[in-house]
Amino acid sequence: MSEEHKYCSVLEGKLALPYQYFAGRLGSRFIVSLRDAKKIFGVKCNSCGKVFVPPRRTCERCFENIENNVVELSDTGEVVNFTIVNYADRHLPRKPPFVLALIKLDGADTPLTHIVEGVEPGSVSNGMRVKAVFAEETTNCILDIDHFEPV
Amino acid sequence: MAEYYGTTVADIFKTQTERFRVEGAEGVDAVFAYDISGDGGGRWKVTVRDKKALTEKVDDGDLGDFSVKLSTDAETFVGISIGKVDGTEAFTGGKLRVEGDMALMGVLPRLFVKYTPPGGGVTAQDVIASLPERFRPDRAGDLEAAIGYDITGGGGGKWTAVVSGGKVTVEDGLRDDLSMKQTVSAKDFVDLVLGKLDPMVAIGGGRLRISGDMEVAAAVPKIFAKFEPKGAEKGPELIVLKKTISVDMRYATGPVMGRFLEALKEKKILANVCPECGRKQLPPREVCAVCRCRVDDFREVGPEGTIELLEHTYYASPDPLTGETRETPYGIIHVLLDGCSGTETLWHLIKPSDLGSAKVGDRVRPVWAEKRNGSIFDMLYFEKVD
Predict the structure, then answer these.
(1) Which chain B residue's Cα is nearest to A90?
(2) Secondary element (H or E) of residue B181
(3) Considering only CA atoms, which of A79, A16, A119 is closest in space to residue B320?
């Protein structure tokens, strides 16, 4: 080490970022439904017929207010795309490797992103049928569905 | 002015414009006339046109042209407005008369948000009376305390809540042997309970005064469940998640800050001196901020010094080295170490037990950590030199 760099070192530290996330009125209803009724609902646009999940207030195509057109969805669906998460971060919901999949629930037109478990990550494939497993201990977030597993 | 259900007719019209819902007014062009009899009544006109609402009081004479006119007494009007009286029943019972375009009555609910009285009609007495049923013995443990409520102004009173043997009883008046007492106006008290007034704001502004045992004062919010106004319409549950993300940081010291930190391990505080202007930089920097020349001349300063600036901090930001939020209050000081002059001060903390008595001009010295690893907190804080 040169004389100039003799004193260089690296200090380890942390930065805490406290924040609040408001799920929104419709988002809150969605989470409460997952938590209490163990049911997944979407909203349907009466103009184009598309069913969105997670629910949203406005149809992205027709700009119709659709927040009250609630449609109950099945807890089963199909994997339409997926990725295997291979890095660890304390903010991730699982230790790697785990599967994050886009799951199109029966009755919905848009996919829901969630974890797929109960299958080797390498064996997950598009088209795989999966079913929601609801969390026993609820946390007021999307993880009130704990994960999806193959049917 | 006469109040019905804690609300006056004028309260309702005063807020009419702010309760207006633009999204409900599409295509509505109408004048709503109100003829309200009895104590606190009067005549008002509400014009809805071009997605705007205008409310006027008509003090004399005639209401002029209208699309629809409602005639009723003040009590019925307030009752219907706040949902205590059924509008259809009032109409069929002859207490409410409608002239003109009856269909417009159906449009009203989408034109205006329902009036809600401030505080939801909750009184200080309601809150005090609910203390026993809101008591949480599991959280109170074996706490024994007499909590005094000195609620001033209209709707106020004096009460003592006695916490004893895992129960709470409420007595009228203030006991002599209170553990703690809070003094606050009835309005602020209700707002505090309903979460509309921040306790820190109330204390800071002198609107809430707490005296006596601070440990009891700190326990009060924990040992009572949240107050839920009776009969209040419960809105849908709204979900808010409070989280803290913690991000790992790595700070490269560089050669100059590295040398300063390295010296702290040996209980030495180093400043560096500009070869051109002679000013000291503390902590040292690679380049003189004034002359912009390289600064290589390091000199030991301190360790004792004089407080130049002292700041009591009540709002803590997270400590960047740990991500934890510090206990408040804590004291930040700028110390002019011996050997430095002018503005060549060092930022650090004052010893917590010296916070109450420390003042600008006091002599201080660093308290060194047992284990020193080359961080600014190798000095734990500065303490007063006796």
Answers:
(1) B246
(2) strand B180-185
(3) A16
Q: Are B367 and B382 in contact (CB under 8 A)?
A: yes
Residue spans of the domains in chain A: they are 23-150
Integer Cα distance of B296 and B312 in angstroms = 35
Which residue ranges does chain B devote to CATH 3.30.1050.10?
A: 9-119, 122-223
Q: Among B76, B115, B75, B120, which residue's Cα sits nearest to residue B98?
A: B76
Between chain A and chain B, how many beta carbons pairs sit less than 8 Å apart? 110
Pick A21's closest partner by Cβ from B243, B246, B325: B243
Contact between residue B371 and residue B314 where contact means Cβ atoms under 8 Å apart: no
- Identify which of A4, A12, A29 has the shortest CB distance to residue B255: A4
pTM: 0.48
pLDDT of residue B101: 86
Of A14, A22, A25, the CB nearest to B236: A25
- Look at residue B160 and give its three-state secondary structure: strand
Report the complex ipTM.
Answer: 0.81
Class of domain B9-119: alpha beta
Minimum Cα–Cα distance from B376: chain A residue: A11
Q: Is the Cα dihedral B253, B257, B258, B263 positive or negative?
A: negative
CA A86 to chain centre: 17
Residue of B nearest to A11 (CA): B251
Mutation for testing the A interface, residue in B23, B234, B238, B253 having most A CBs under 10 Å? B238
Confidence category of residue B120, pLDDT binned at 50, 70, 90: low
CA distance B88 to B155: 34
Higher-confidence position of B241 and A135:
A135
Residues in chain A with pLDDT values less than 70: 1-2
Is CATH 3.20.20.70 the classification given to domain B122-223? no
Q: How far is A132 from chain B (nearest CA, A)?
A: 22
State the nearest Cα–Cα gap between B346 and chain A, in angstroms: 20
First-to-last C-alpha distance (Å) of chain A: 60
User: Which of B241, B258, B325 is nearest residue A141 as measured by Cβ atoms?
Assistant: B241
